[in-house]
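Late entry, written up from scratch paper. The run itself happened at the end of the previous shift, but nothing got recorded in the book at the time, so transcribing now.
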Amino acid sequence: MLVVGANGAGKTNLLEALHVGTQGFSPRTRSDAQLIRFGEDAGRISLRGRVVASPVAAELTLTQHEGKRALLNGERLRTAEQLRSAVSTLVFTPDRLAIVKGGPAVRRAYVDRSLARLYPARAQLPTAYAAALAQRNAALRLATRDAIAPWTEQVARLGADLVAARLELLDVLSEPYRRRAAALGLAGCSLGYEGDPPSVEALAARLERDLERGSTGLGPHLHDVRLLAGDRDLRSYGSQGEQRIVVLALLLAEAELLAERRGAPPLLLLDDVLSELDPARRAALAEQLEPLGQTLVTATSADALPVAPAQLLEVTPGEVRIR
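Output as recorded:
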């Protein structure tokens, strides 16, 4: 599905509404107030569709002072984020290039979000590790050695589990990622993990340094993921177009795995994805998308996509029309 319109017409807003309505949060901001139209006190997103053969109805209401209220098939949800149990949604926006361009924290966050989507039973592992780490750091700052030891054990155990989960995820992603990137014209892509699992012994060996700093100086909160093409680190030596291909290949690889594991493809939202791709790579992307289920691609004109879309939507301020 191709969504066209002039710059500022509201194409990105349409995709953001679909993400909020299926996942319970915005990919752009964590401030719910920013999702409500200026001058209004509330907003509502109502979606109807099917996941394989099952009908799905989702509704999310936002108010300025009362937070979010979500319904799924008429049933009130405890949190809006529970909407993601019904529909998987993956999004590309230009700021997602930070996965390649940004620092290690951005890549760690991406990997941990993918871990939650592909391994729901491990979704709380990064949060549990972060909580134990915060407690150990608090004990370090207070220099209460008796309180440090139990949190050292927790950080070592949860940290080792988190590193193992990340490595398993990258192992599963690696082949479809390599294949998708090659199809988009970037050969030899691979994923690498930098960092070792923490242990009680390693943490104890650097206790004095950690006490001086007031923080834990090793563990998965400091690790990185390397995005390579051959021996080339694409963060430092990748062009803008190559970095875009890397993010797209990761997204397409995850979409493939989600479809296999859940029995239904995710909804793909691709905002301004075609800019900085040459015609051959645009055609390759269109071919990659075709078997992956429902995809919405935004562009300023219909000729940006080198194939005929299944449906063409035109966005003007305040209106979406089928062309």
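Residues 95-263 form a domain with the Glutathione S-transferase Yfyf (Class Pi); Chain A, domain 2 fold (CATH 1.20.1050.90).
(Scratch paper discarded after transcription.)
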